[in-house]
Design goal:
This protein is α+β, with helices and mostly antiparallel strands. The protein has ten helices and eleven strands. The chain has three domains: 96 residues, PAS domain (Beta-Lactamase), CATH 3.30.450; 92 residues; 142 residues, Heat Shock Protein 90.
Length: 335
C-alpha cells in the first residue's frame, strides 16, 4: 500500500496527461469518489470547480503553486480547498485540505464588517440630518426672532434719545448684533447650508475660508477635476471626512498651511488633504486604543470603505502628511 494512503490530507497523483493515477482515502472522503471512480480519469473531470464562484484558477492551471479553490462534489456540496501542486515525475502531486469552514467563517466576518460599515455610515447620515434640522430651526426661529428684535430696537432709537436711554439702547443693539452673528456662525458650524444647497466643491471652499478665519490655518483648494454632482450620502461622508482631517491638522499637526486637492484617476474620485506639519505614524492612528483622539483616521477609513473606496496615507513623524480619499466615481461626474 502506498505510504500516502494514511495521510490526513487528500493526496492525488497524475501522469503527464493529467490523468489520475493515485487517489488516497482522504481524497475519497473529500471529493466523494472512490479511488476506482477517480483513477484513470482526467483531473478536471473528477474535481470540478464550483460554478457559483467567478472565474478562478483550477488544478489544471496550477503548477508548482498553492491556492484556495472553489470546488464541488458529485452531491453538489460546495468546497473551499487549499491545494498545493508540485511536479511528481512526469506528472503532478496534489495535496488538498478542506478549508470550507474557515473560508465561510471569514466570509461571515466580512459580511458582518460590511454591515457595520453600512450602519456607521447610516448613523453619520442620520446625525447630519438631525444637525441640518437643528440648523434650520436656529435660522428660521431664533435667527429671525433676533433680526426682528433688532429692527424694533432701531425704531425705538429715536425716542430713546429724549428719554435718556440712548446709551442703554446702543449697548443692547451691540449685544444683539453679536448674538445674530453668533447664531449665523453656529448654524454653519452645525450643518453648512452650502453643502446641501450648492454641493461639495463650494462646501470645501467655505471650509477652507472658515479655517483660515477661525483657526489661522491657511488652506489652499486645488480643484483639478470637478466633483459635483454627487449623491447626498457621498457628499456628506466626504465632507465630514475632509473636515475631520483638517480638524486633526489644526489640533495636532502644528502646521502653517494645508491643501485640499480634487482629482479624477482611473474612474475614481480622489480628494487629497496634505499639510506641512509635524507628521505622524499611520500605524498607531489606524488602530484605535479606545481613548479620545484615536478614532479619527479609523472612522474616516470606515466611512470611505462604506462608499466602496479606500484610504491612502503618506505620513511619517517630522515630514508632514498627505491623506487621500479614493472612492468610485459616480456616473455623471467628470469627463
Amino acid at each position: 500500500m502506498s505510504p500516502f494512503q494514511h495521510f490526513p490530507d487528500a493526496m492525488i497523483v497524475t501522469d503527464a496527461a493529467l490523468r489520475i493515477t493515485a487517489w488516497n482515502a482522504a481524497a475519497e472522503r473529500l471529493y466523494e469518489r472512490t479511488a476506482a471512480e477517480a483513477c484513470g480519469h482526467d483531473l478536471d473531470a473528477v474535481i470540478e470547480p464550483d460554478p457559483t464562484v467567478g472565474a478562478t484558477a483550477t488544478l489544471r492551471t496550477l503548477v508548482d503553486a498553492r491556492a484556495e479553490l472553489a470546488q464541488r462534489t458529485p452531491s453538489g456540496r460546495r468546497l473551499w480547498v487549499d491545494c498545493a501542486v508540485g511536479a511528481y515525475g512526469e506528472g503532478r502531486l496534489i495535496v488538498a485540505r478542506d478549508v470550507t469552514a474557515r473560508h465561510d467563517a471569514e466570509a461571515r466576518v466580512q459580511e458582518y464588517q460590511r454591515r457595520l460599515r453600512d450602519l456607521a455610515a447610516e448613523l453619520t447620515l442620520a446625525e447630519e440630518r438631525q444637525r441640518r434640522e437643528l440648523a434650520a430651526d436656529l435660522h428660521d426661529h431664533l435667527g429671525q426672532a433676533l433680526a426682528m428684535l433688532r429692527l424694533k430696537l432701531m425704531r425705538l432709537k429715536g425716542d430713546a434719545v429724549f428719554c435718556g436711554l440712548d446709551a442703554d439702547l446702543e449697548g443692547m443693539q451691540t449685544l444683539l448684533g453679536q448674538a445674530i452673528r453668533y447664531t449665523r456662525s453656529l448654524t454653519f458650524e452645525i450643518s453648512p447650508p452650502v453643502l446641501h444647497e450648492l454641493g461639495l466643491a463650494p462646501a470645501l471652499e467655505w471650509l477652507a475660508e472658515h479655517l483660515d478665519a477661525k483657526q489661522g490655518l491657511t488652506v489652499r483648494l486645488r480643484a483639478e477635476a470637478p466633483v459635483d454632482p454627487l449623491p447626498e450620502a457621498m457628499r456628506v461622508l466626504l465632507f465630514k471626512s475632509v473636515r475631520e482631517l483638517l480638524t486633526n491638522v489644526v489640533k495636532h499637526a502644528n502646521a502653517k498651511t494645508a491643501t485640499i486637492e480634487t482629482t479624477l484617476e482611473s474612474g475614481a474620485l480622489v480628494i487629497a488633504v496634505a499639510d506641512d506639519g509635524v507628521g505622524f505614524d499611520p500605524t498607531t492612528h489606524l488602530h484605535p486604543r479606545g481613548d479620545a483622539g484615536t478614532f479619527g483616521l479609523f472612522s474616516i477609513l470606515e466611512r470611505v470603505r462604506a462608499l466602496g473606496g479606500r484610504l491612502e496615507i503618506d505620513a511619517r513623524p517630522g515630514a508632514g502628511s498627505r491623506v487621500r480619499l479614493v472612492v468610485p466615481r459616480p456616473a455623471g461626474v467628470g469627463p
